Amino acid sequence: MSIVLKVDVDTYRGTREGVPRLLALFAKYDIKATFLFSLGPDNTGRALKRIFRPGFFSKVARTSVLEHYGLKTLLYGVLLPGPHIAKNTEQIMRSVVDAGHEVGVHCYDHVRWQDNVRNQGEDWTRNQLNLAMQAFDQYLGCKPTTIGAAGWQLNDFVPHLEAELGFTYASDTRGDTPFFPQTLAATSSCMQIPTTLPTMDELLGANGISGTNIAECLFQHSLKANEYGHVYTLHAEMEGMKLLPAMDQLIQYLIAGEQQFQTLAERHAYLSDREIPMLPITWAEIEGRSGELAMSSF
Ligand SMILES: [Zn+2]
């Protein structure tokens, strides 16, 4: 069995503080992962309006947004100007490349994408993707080949825009099966490699799961057979900060269980001689997370 560690980096603080700690952790075990960056302004504070959405309070109470994100981050874009992440963390992003990890795009503006993309049209979507790609190119000096949408949110235009903009594989969705997404009148040539496992913030607090037993719980999930291999999404703001000891423990379990670690690039190469289905994207709720997420329909 193999597992991809996909690191979503959502915030300025997560890039500055969480990413270096994850680099040190992965170096300790000689593991290569895929880091997906938020490249534009950190407007995390604007996400507070999600408080008024049904289901949010139960999630906040369980994962303690303040504890994991910090007060300053929650004021960005509201009472404090949101810092431009790539401009202020260029050296850190480059150090991820220098350490041999794969890098890709998470988004330009996380809150803007997550809260709006599902109802936006082609021009808005193309603009957001272009802004992210330009910042990626400007600060990392190359074109990205992979992307993983913020908050597992997208619209019908995203898969074909990803193909048009040169992404060859993406991890925008949840589900067990890689697929070529069928949207509009066409099938995108940009392969979806979904996140197969639950995230720590989805599991924490439910069914007696805490920081001390979450690694074992996730390891149990990873034992569920999947012929394509698993994809685990972690967050620089969580596993790179307060949940770093749990992530360390999870890696030890995975090594003991003889899981092979892959980047998304390695998984994509492995999948390229497999028969990959063409499927529409569907929407569903996932336990522990508020709102609907994009899913493979298998
Ligand atoms: Zn994210």
From TrEMBL:
UniProt-listed InterPro entries: Glyco_hydro/deAcase_b/a-brl, NODB_dom
GO molecular function: hydrolase activity, acting on carbon-nitrogen (but not peptide) bonds
A UniProt-annotated Pfam family: Polysacc_deac_1
Protein's GO biological process: carbohydrate metabolic process
NodB homology domain location: 1-262
Taxonomic superkingdom: Bacteria
Protein name (Swiss-Prot/TrEMBL): Chitin deacetylase
Species annotation: Zhongshania aliphaticivorans
UniProt lineage: Bacteria, Pseudomonadati, Pseudomonadota, Gammaproteobacteria, Cellvibrionales
